[in-house]
Target: pyruvate decarboxylase
Amino acid sequence: MSTTIGGYLAKRLTQIGVDHHFAVAGDYNLVLLDQLLAQDGLEQVYCCNELNCGFAAEGYARAKGAACAVVTFSVGALSAINALGGAHAENLPVILVSGAPNTNDHGTGRILHHTLGTSDYGYQFEMVRHVTVAAERLFSAEDAPAKIDHVIERALALSKPVYLEIPCNVADLECPEPGPIEALLPRKPACNTTLDQAVAATLSFLEKREQVVILVGSKLRAAHGLDAAVKLADRLGCAVTITAAAKGFFPEDHPGYRGVYWGNVSSPGAEALIDNADAILCLGPVFNDYSTVGWEAWPRGEKVALVNPDDVVVAGTHFGGVDLRSFVTALSEQAPRRPLSADNSALSLPVSTPLPAEAKLTNDEMMRQIGALVTADTTLTAETGDSWFNAVRLHLPAKARVELEMQWGHIGWSVPSAFGNATGSPERQHIVMVGDGSFQLTAQEVAQMIRYELPVIIFLINNRGYVIEIKIHDGPYNYIQNWDYAGLINAFNASEGHGLGLRANTAGELAEAIDKARQNRRGPTLIECTLDREDCTDDLVRWGKEVAKTNARPPVTN
Ligand SMILES: C/C(NCc1cnc(C)nc1N)=C(/S)[C@H](O)COP(=O)(O)OP(=O)(O)O
Ligand SMILES: [Mg+2]
Model:
C-alpha cells in the first residue's frame, strides 16, 4: 500500500487525535491542501490570515492536545512564526506546515515570488528554528516519512511547536503508508533509580516540615500532571495555591485550595501562606517578571522544592530526567498521609451585589454577571489586559477551564485562539474576555466563528484604550480609535442570524445581552461592554506600579 507525502501527514494527524487543521491558501501549498482534504476524518478550517491561523491552532491544541496550521511560504509563514513563538512560550504542540518553492529552483540563482528577492530560500527555515524544538525541510519522498514522524514525535514529547516545510512539487509524491503511531507517542524514561532517589530525598525534606504548601505552576498541564497534583494534595492534606497563569489547573472546590499566589495582588491570605510555609512544592512553575511582580514574589531557598516537567530540585540536589507526572504520582503514593490542614472556607470569595438595571455598567457588575455564566462546561479565554486580573479573580466551579497566554502575552491572541479552541471542543461553552485594544489586532476571526457557526460569547471590554499600559506608563500612544464593535458583526454578514452584535452600557442591558447570547446557538455573540477608563481592577493598578518600577531600573554600573 502507498500514499502521498501529504496523505502520510494527514493520516499521522488523525492518528494523534487532530481532526481539524487550520489553513490559509497560497500557491506554494495548494497541492498539499488537496492531499490533506482527501483524508477521511480530517477537516480543513480556514482563517483570515496566518497569524490568526497559528493562534487558532494554538487554541485547538489547548483543547485537543496537538494542532496543525498550514500556510504558504515566506509571506504566510513569517506571520505564523509569531504565533509559533506563543505556542513555544505556552508549551503547546503546534505543527506548522509551510508550502515551499519547487525543488528544481534551489541553487539555480533564480528569483522567486513571495521571497526576499534573493536566490536563497533558506531564511525561513533559519528563522523558524528559534521558535521550534524540531524543524525539517522535505526535498524528496525517500526521507519524508522519517522527517514527518520526527517532528510529530518531538512536538508531543516536549509539548512544544515544530516545523515542516513541504515544496509544492513534493506534496503529492508517492510514499509508503504510515505504520502504527505508538512509537511517536510520549513515553517517559523508565529510569526508576533517579525517580526513587528524588522521591526519597523529597520525603526526608518533608519529614520535619509542618507548614507544607503546594504551588501549582503553568507547566503542570503540559506535563500531564493535573490529576497527580490533586492526589498529592489529598495525601499531604496541605494548602494549595496557584500561580495566575495556572488558573483552572487545580479544582477550586478542593478543600485545600487557597487561591492565587501573585505577590501584592494575591488572593487574600495566599501570600502569607507562601511566606510562612516551611516547605513549598512548586509543580511546573514559571517565575517570570510578571508572575513574580517585578521579581518581588519569587519563592526560593531551602524551603522550596522545584518539580519541573523533566527534573526535580530538592534539598540542594538536582535529579535530572525525572518526569513530573511520575514523580508527583510516586510521592503521592509514598508520602505519609497527613490530616487536612487547610480549609478553603478561609478563602474569602469576591462578593458583589447586583446593580440596579438602570445603573451604569461597572467592571465589578460585568464580572459578577460573567462569573454567573461559568459552569463546569465553560472554557473562558481571557486576553492580555485587565481581563487577566478579572479572570484570575473568578472562583471557578470544578472542571471549568480558563485559558491565558501570560508568558507570550500577544494582545489579540484570544479571538483566534478561542476560535481554534471552540473548533476542537464544540461540546463546551466558550466565552472570551477581550479588551478593545487587543480586539483591534485580530478581529477578523469573528467572521470565521460566523462561517463555522460557533456560538462563542465575546465580552468586548471597551474602556477606550490600552488601560494596562496606561497604568504602567501613560502617554498618547495608549489611546486608540474607538470602533463600533457591536456593529462590526454586521460587516461580517451575520445577517443569516448566525452572529449577534450588542452593546451594554448598563447592568440591565448586559443582563439582556447575556440572555440573547445564551439563546444564540448558531454563531458568535459579541457584547460590547462600555466601561469608564478608570474603572479597572485594583489589582491591575497595584501590579502595574510594581512592574513600572521594575522596568525603570537604571542600568547597573560596576
Ligand atoms: C498594548 C498592550 N500591550 C503591548 C503589546 C503590543 N503588541 C502586542 C502584539 N502585544 C502586546 N502585549 C496592551 S496589554 C493593551 O493594554 C491592551 O489593551 P486592551 O486590550 O484594551 O486591554 P486593557 O484596556 O485591559 O489594557
Ligand atoms: Mg482597553
About this structure: Residues 436 and 509 are 19 Å apart (CA to CA).
